[in-house]
From TrEMBL:
Biological processes, Gene Ontology terms: peptide transport
Name under which the protein is recorded: Peptide ABC transporter substrate-binding protein
Family matches, as SUPFAM superfamilies: Periplasmic binding protein-like II
Keywords: Signal, Transport
Annotated family: Belongs to the bacterial solute-binding protein 5 family.
Organism name: Streptomyces botrytidirepellens
Molecular function terms, GO-annotated: peptide transmembrane transporter activity
Gene3D superfamilies recorded: Dipeptide-binding Protein, Domain 3, Periplasmic binding protein-like II
Subcellular location: Cell envelope
PANTHER family given in the database record: PERIPLASMIC BINDING COMPONENT OF ABC TRANSPORTER, PERIPLASMIC OLIGOPEPTIDE-BINDING PROTEIN-RELATED
Amino acid sequence: MGRSETRTRLRTLLAGLLAALLTLLTGGCSAGSGRVTDVGATGGTRVEGGTATMALPPAAGPNWIFPIGAPGYLASYNGALQNLLYPPLYQPVRKGGTLTMDNPRNLAEPPRYGDGGTAVTVTLKKGSTWSDGRPVTTGDVKFWFELIRDNKKEWGGYSPGLLPDNVKRFETVDDRTFRLRLDRAYNPAWFTANQLGQNVVPLPRHAWNPRNESPRKSFARLLGHAKRLSAFATDPLWKTVSGPWKIERWSTSGQVSLVPNRHYTGPDKPHLDRVVFKPFTTADSEFNVLRSGGVDYGYIPPSVMAQAGRFTERGYRVDPWEGWAITYIVLNLNHPTTGPMLRQTYLRRALQYLIDQRSIARVVWHGTAAPTRGPIPAGLLARDPYPYDPTRARRLLAAHGWRERGGVLRCVRPGTGPDACGKGIRGGQRLKLSLLSQSGSTETSNQMQEIKSSYDRAGITLDIRQQPLNTVLGTTVPCKRTEPLCSAWELGFFGTAGSWYFPPAPSGEQLFATGAPSNMGNWSDPRADELIKATEYSGDPAAMRRYGEYVARQVPVLWTPNPAYQVSVIRNDLRGIDQNPTLTLAPQDWYFVTKDAKDAKDKKRAGRG
């Protein structure tokens, strides 16, 4: 079947989805048919206090609190919550149409670069304290540095050659100032955004290491605490925080409630009494609770964007949360059976040609997604190097020794020649793949079924298994070919809300460099490593473009449509929300408003539950 038949089938799918969701919206809605607030999208009188509830992504629950992330626990919502308790020195903020590290809530003054770019000096702002009243000092930053330096292989943010490897010496100037002596000169904008920003987190040495244990012993003990999910809310260790919030409850099901840290010394003190992050098994279950007024800040499936007016009539505003991100299917190049196939560049290109990103973005995601073109946000690349082209995919596979037999492609020319299947691929081997995909999203399920159908027509078998997001993230981790875990997955997808969100500089040291912590598929290319280094060292904007164009052509992963993080639906009377493209949260800036001053006083007395 060709493109026209694909579109017909997708239109049929869309019609069915809209009919079902329209029924859901209009039927049996006595509990959710009235307005949730009589306040418009603007105006009103601020209310101090109250509880705001935010919906978490489908089949996702926060499961890591330690500010040093471990592989398999790097979900964006984990990092977003950690930052509310243990903020890093620098956080990105949106100003106009750009992202900047010049954020008023930063714990430190802007870094100062010297000695030809080989030294960076950082001074903590005056007055920052821990929740027990102790000051945040250079010693707390050094404690973090010693932990990652001596335990770097267990840190999910470690990329060989970068932090902590690129710091020759940590110098304490005084209680508020430290200096990093670097192994060479770096692009200051890149180093601030991608090394200092989001990475460097002061940790309470006095509370977490009172016996002055070695970094290895201290890290092992802290890691043990970090794996006790059921004790996050009660463990004394996590009660010493420097951020605007502290833990009230943290259930094993993933529901988290935070309350203000009354000893917080930053400029953005919370207005609310409590913020609750509520998990849902599926987008449909969240939709039902949202429709009945059960969450204040939720989301709707992209398929009901056409019905957004129904929510605005009931006192909500609808606002897609766009991310600075890319989305893809990970390929496990070290899998003992399919790894030899996936290591063939021609085969990866053929698989990419068979993904109709434009149609999927328009029909399955209802225009709330756009094609991913490569390893950096699409707007930074001029074109898609592998647009949907089934004919070219079939020719490419045939030219390398694959023939269709009984509707299934098999290797008929094994070997390593230019017209052969490639090293490690046996004669007669089927082109069969297994995909582990996250559950909970109708759009993701339909996207994977569309890709499966496209592959089937080309003679490629794709088996799909769905699991909750945390399971997928915990399974699709970098592995060696001899490790049992490497046999557990072949392809993986965790991109219902985008696969990877970048700091302001979208370079690839964490994603596609050899040995990078989030290089889940174990891809390695010396030329790509050189181009990634160029983005780190040079301020030339062309360096990022050259890296992006090269890696896009190599297809280390399969690029898929990049969706909005979510189509947010927010109560009109909940204000102060800025949907940061890097997915950071700032509920300390949120507040409720009411229609007049009298209501404000009444609500302040009564509170909101």
